[in-house]
Amino acid sequence: MAVKVIIPTPLRAYAGKQESVELQAATVGEALSALTSRFGELKKHLYADDGRLRSFVNVYVNDEDIRYLQKDQTRVREGDTISIVPSIAGGS
Amino acid sequence: MEPVLKIREDLARRIQSHGVETYPHECCGALLGRDAENSREVLDLLPLENRRNDSPRNRFEVTPEDVRLAENTARAKQLDLIGWYHSHPDAPARPSEFDREHAWPWYSYIIVSIQARAPRDTRSWRLRDDRSAYDPEAIETAARSVGS
After folding, report:
1. Would you give per-residue pLDDT tens digits along chain B (148 residues)?
2. B106: phi then psi, degrees, rounded to nearest 5
3. How many domains does chain A contain in total?
4. Which residue, B20, B37, B18, is CA-closest to B28?
5. Does residue B147 fall inside a structural domain?
6. Nearest CA in chain B to A89
């Protein structure tokens, strides 16, 4: 299944300066794994040391948050768009 | 060379005023502007609500929905979403460990220190590529925008 992953502006420098990348995948997990295999430098900005997505990194298939679907097991269909959107957090 | 973030005086003052307004809670908002190879300039702000209701004195959160709103607002104004600002009430304008764990490189992170309801210093920071630390980004204020 060919899906499109939109690369957020701050991470484009680690993805060959591309705005989006087309990948073959059957699930969101497979798509992100293919993305970080192709662009190794992206991995540390998306995943924590324990291998889980960083708590502030949110992933959408089309406009649906995968947290409310089947998380990384969420199946994708031909032509789906995956977006990576941060939540911004911090404090003193 | 230390990166430079340009911002008009009135916009810099609006960030400080937002921090005073929400004191003793943290304020937050988006920086909209233009990013070029050797210059980055804030041209507008989008003040946002701090969604951390459980501990707003020392934490802030911008939800992904608000991040999308900021991206769309920037696009509609033909600008880029170049970073974020927040306040540190009664704490220095330095990023905390919590800030570092929840950040991406490239964005400019402006922090304004508010001490006893008065703005103290305002600083900008960028996360290193390897996520190990922040580097300071010089703030250059001007009465008028460089682009205008």
Report:
1. 789 999 999 999 999 999 999 999 999 999 999 998 878 999 999 999 999 988 899 999 999 999 999 999 999 999 999 999 999 999 999 999 999 999 999 999 999 999 999 999 999 999 999 999 999 999 999 887 655 4
2. 80, -50
3. 1
4. B18
5. no
6. B61
Distance, in Å, from the CA atom of B35 to the CA atom of B83, rounded to the nearest integer, reads 10
Within a domain: residue B133?
Answer: yes
Nearest C-alpha neighbor of B22 from the set B46, B65, B56, B70: B56
Within a domain: A33: yes
ipTM of model? 0.90
As to burial, measured by CB atoms within 10 angstroms (0-12 exposed, 13-18 middle, 19+ buried), residue A49 is exposed
Q: What residue numbers bound the domain in which B49 lies?
A: 4-142
Range of the domain at A8: 2-86
How many domains are contained in chain B? 1
Model pLDDT for residues A65-89, shown as the tens digit of each residue: 999 999 999 999 999 999 999 999 9
Interface residues from chain B to A (CB-CB < 8 Å): 26, 28, 52, 55, 58-64, 67-68, 80-81, 84, 86, 88-92, 95-96, 98-99, 102-107, 109, 129-131
Q: B55: Cβ–Cβ under 8 A, 6 or more apart, which residues? A: A91
Instruction: Indicate whether A91 belongs to any domain.
Output: no
Instruction: Give me the phi and psi of B21, to 5 degrees please.
Output: -60, -45
Confirm whether A62 is domain-assigned: yes
What's the token pair of residue A69?
Answer: 């679907």
